[in-house]
Specification:
alpha+beta; five-stranded mixed beta sheet; BirA Bifunctional Protein, domain 2; 447 residues; globular; ligase (chains A, B); Rossmann fold; 23 strands; 14 helices; 2 domains; nine-stranded mixed beta sheet; 33% helix; homodimer
Chain lengths: 447, 447
C-alpha cells in the first residue's frame, strides 16, 4: 500500500479521553474512531489487524477440528426465557422491540441459540463429538465503557461450544480448547497464562481465564514465576489424543496462577517466596465446562449406544477478538508507539523514502515495494512529501516491526537501512539483502 | 473435511415455509436455519460459501484501489438526525434505547457515519480520491420477510463510499465500481446486468442496479437480448484509467436494460422485436452517485487547490452479500439440488466411498483426500456408512461441482469415476488423473 493512497489519519495530539496506552495509540495511529460511547469504527489500519487476528483464530480452530459457522446478531427473547437468562442478564443486555412488538435483543453470547440448533438437528451419540464456533459481533451495555476496545460495548468475539456424550469427552474438548488457545495467543506474540477462574453468569465447574500480564490490566493476578517460563512453541499436538491434550493442560495449569476472584492466600504462600508474583493481567479468553446446565434446561438430548436419551455435556469457550488489539498493544509498545508482533502486524514492513521526488530514491523504493509484494508480503510505502522526521515518527507510532529507509546518500553506496522497531537497531544492506532478510523473518520463499 | 466429523444436517423433507427454490435448498442442504422471522443462523456449509463470497469481494475491492474498514452495527441516532434520515427511514429501522436512555439503532446503511469519519479526518483535496468500504451486518425490519436470505431482516452487505473533489472525479469512482462489480459477479459464476435504476431513499442522479436473471426474481426487467452476450472475461483493466472504465460503462449500459421502476415502453419498442426480452431479475447490487447531498447536510468539505472550502462529491455502492447465496442458487440449480459455480463452491470436490469399511476403497479415498488437500483444495469426503444412493442424493443436493466416486469394482480396473454436477457426465480415470483434472479446473499447480 502506498501511504498517499491510504487512509491513515494519524493524530499528533493525545486525545484527552484516552486513559491507557493502547487506547491512546489506537486513536493516534488512526486505527479506531469512537462512534458512540464504547462503540468504535475500525479504520483501515485497525481493521487490518482485526482481520489478521480473526484469520489466526480460524486457522487454529480448524487445526483443533472445530467447525466455523455464524449465528445472527439479533435474537428473539424466547430462547432466553427458556433458559431463564432473559431476566437474569440485567441491564447489560441491549433489548429492543421489532415492528411487530416482539422482544428482541443484541446477543451478548450464544449458548441458547447453539443449543437450539443442536437439539433440532442432532439426535444420536454417533454425531458426537461436535464443536461449533463463530466469530461475531456482540454487545454488552456496560454502564461505564472505557479503555477503548478493551472495555467497549460493541465487541468482536470468538465463541465456541462443544457437545459431548459424557463428562469425560467434554473435558477432553475443554483441554483441546486450552491447547488450541495457547497456540493461538502465541502466534499473536502474546503470552496468555491460563488461570483458574470464577464461572460467573454462564455457570460451570471447570473454567480457566487466559490473562496477558500488563501493568494496566483490570485484574490483580498472583502466580508462580515458573509459569512465565513455559512456552507452547511449535510442538505438534494431536488434538484427538486425550493424553497429549491432558499433558499440556497439566503442564500449563499445575503451577499456581489465579485472579483475585479465586485467589487462595494459603496456597499461594506455599510457593517459595522468590517465585511469588503479584501483578496485573488483561483477560483475553476463557474456557468453561458447564455440563448439562443448558441441555437439561432446553432438552438437548441424544440417544446413547443403549438407546437411552441422555442430555449432552457442553462447554463454551471464548476469545475477545477486538479486545486482543488492546491487549497486544498494552503488552508491546514503547514511548514512541506500538510495536506489532510479526504475526499480527498490519503491514509486514514500512518503506520510508527520505527524498520523495529524487529519481533514484523513488526507483529504489518502487523496486523494494515490488519485490516485497511479489513475495506475498504487504509493505506500507511512505511516498508522501513529509519531512523525514515526521515519516519516522508516524512509522514508529503505527509500529510496523521492520522499516527500510531509502535515501540518496545510502544509495550512492548501494545500501538501504533496515531497522527493527523492537530493538531500534539498524543495519545497512543492499536492497536485495534487505528483502531477503524480511522474507526469512516472515518465512516466505523468495520468488 | 470428513463428513463424519462435519455438521451437515441435510433434510429429506422440503420445509413447508420455503416458497422459492434457493430457500428450500439452503434449508435442505443444512446451510441455514431460521432463528426468528427473517433472521438466520449460518450453518457450516452456508457460512463457508458466505466467506468465499466475502473474500472475492475483498480481493476485487483491493484491485480497484478501495480500502477496507468496518463501522459499528449499533449507532447513535444523532448523526441520523443531522442528515434528516432518522425520521424519514420509517419502521424498517430497528430502533432501541441504551441503558442511559439514548436513542440508538441497528444501522441499515452508513452514509452518515462514513461522512462523519471523513469530515473529522480529511481537510484537503490532496487526500482525494478516497473510497472506503466495509462488509458488515445490516438490519432492515421488513414487514413480511420471506424467501430466506433473499429478503431477510438481518443481512450481510458490502457498502462502499467514494469521496471526490469534483463531479467528474466522482463519476470515475462510479464507473470504477461498475467495472469492479462486473468482475466480482463473474467470479461468482453470475451474469449480473447493470440496469438503470430508481434512486430511492438514498437519493441521487446516477444509479444502476445489478440484476441476475431468474424466474423467481422480485423485479420485472426489460432488456435488449444483446446484453446477455456481453462478458467481462479476464480483460485487464487499469482502474485508474478514466477512459478504460468509461469504455466498460458504455459497453455494458448502452443497450436497453431497465427494471419496471424505470421502464420506458417507447424506448424499449425501438429495439428490433426479436431482441426484446421481458423477464424477471434479482437485485444483487447497486451503485449511486449522489453528489453533495450528504456533504452539504453534514458539512463535509475540503480545501481545493485555490484554498476554497468545497463540499465533496460522494457516491455509495452496495453488494448484497448474504442475498448473493440465494441469487446464485436461483440461477444455478436443477431438480436434484444446488449446482455451485467453481468460484464459490464450499468444497472443491466430493469423494464418495461406495463401500466404507472395504480396505482398498478406504485407502483409495484417503489417498485422494490427501492429494487434493496437498494441492490446497478442500475436498468433502463422505466417509459415512450410508448406502450409495443416499450419498449421491446428498452430494447432488449440496451441489459440489465435481464428485469422485470410489468403489471396489472400479479399483480392480485401477479407476475411479469423476462426475460433473452440472452436466451429469462421468468419466473413468486413474485416481491421479482425476486429481490432475480437478487441479487444472481450479488452476492450482500439482505439488
Amino acid at each position: 500500500m502506498r501511504l498517499s493512497r491510504y487512509f491513515l489519519p494519524v493524530l499528533k495530539e493525545t486525545p484527552a479521553e484516552a486513559q491507557i496506552v493502547s487506547h491512546r495509540y489506537m486513536l493516534r495511529a488512526g486505527m479506531i474512531k469512537q462512534a458512540s460511547a464504547g462503540i468504535y469504527s475500525w479504520l483501515p489500519l485497525g481493521f487490518k489487524v482485526l482481520r489478521k487476528i480473526e484469520n489466526i483464530i480460524h486457522e487454529e480452530q480448524a487445526r483443533a477440528g472445530h467447525i466455523a459457522m455464524q449465528m445472527p446478531i439479533i435474537q428473539s427473547a424466547d430462547l432466553w426465557r427458556e433458559s431463564g437468562r432473559y431476566d437474569a442478564y440485567g441491564a447489560e443486555m441491549l433489548r429492543m422491540k421489532d415492528r411487530h412488538d416482539r422482544d428482541m435483543l443484541f446477543t451478548p453470547t450464544a449458548e441458547e441459540l447453539i443449543t437450539d440448533i443442536f437439539r433440532a438437528n442432532v439426535s444420536s451419540y454417533k454425531d458426537l463429538p461436535l464443536t461449533l464456533y463463530q466469530i461475531q459481533w456482540k454487545f454488552r451495555d456496560e454502564i461505564r465503557p472505557r479503555f477503548g476496545v478493551m472495555r467497549g460495548r460493541e465487541f468482536y468475539m470468538k465463541d465456541g461450544y462443544n457437545f459431548d456424550l459424557t463428562k469425560e469427552d467434554a473435558l477432553h474438548a475443554y483441554n483441546r480448547h486450552l491447547v488450541s488457545y495457547l497456540r493461538t495467543y502465541e502466534r499473536m506474540g502474546l503470552q496468555a497464562i491460563p488461570m483458574r477462574a470464577d464461572s460467573g453468569p454462564i455457570g460451570g465447574d471447570n473454567t480457566h481465564e487466559f490473562l496477558v500480564l500488563a501493568e494496566t490490566g483490570e485484574s490483580e493476578v498472583c502466580y508462580d514465576s515458573q509459569i512465565t517460563d513455559l512456552k507452547f512453541g511449535d510442538r505438534q499436538i494431536d488434538f484427538e489424543s486425550r493424553e497429549q491434550c491432558q499433558a499440556v493442560l497439566e503442564e500449563f495449569t499445575s503451577r499456581y496462577a489465579r485472579t483475585d476472584e479465586t485467589h487462595d492466600e494459603a496456597l499461594f504462600n506455599q510457593i517459595p517466596e522468590e517465585r511469588r508474583r503479584v501483578a496485573r493481567g488483561i483477560e483475553v479468553g476463557q474456557i468453561f465446562y458447564f455440563g448439562t446446565k443448558y441441555s437439561d434446561a432446553m432438552g438437548a438430548t441424544v440417544s446413547d449406544a443403549e438407546g437411552n436419551q441422555v442430555p449432552v455435556h457442553m462447554g463454551s469457550h471464548g476469545i475477545g477478538v477486538s479486545r486482543l488489539l488492546g491487549a497486544i498493544i498494552e503488552a508491546s509498545h514503547d514511548d514512541k508507539g506500538i510495536i506489532w508482533p510479526e504475526g499480527v502486524t498490519p503491514f509486514h514492513a514500512g518503506i520510508v523514502n527520505l527524498k520523495q521526488g529524487d529519481a533514484e530514491a523513488d526507483a529504489a523504493c518502487e523496486a523494494l515495494y515490488a519485490s516485497l509484494t511479489a513475495l506475498g508480503l504487504e509493505p506500507l510505502y511512505d511516498d508522501t512529501t513529509e519531512r523525514a522526521g515526521a515519516k519516522f515518527a508516524s512509522m514508529d507510532l503505527i509500529g510496523l516491526p521492520w522499516r527500510i529507509t531509502v535515501g540518496p546518500r545510502g544509495l550512492k553506496n548501494g545500501v538501504v537501512e533496515l531497522t527493527s522497531r523492537r530493538t531500534g537497531e539498524s543495519e545497512e544492506l543492499a536492497p536485495e539483502a534487505a528483502v531477503a532478510k524480511i522474507a526469512a523473518i516472515y518465512g516466505v520463499a523468495k520468488a
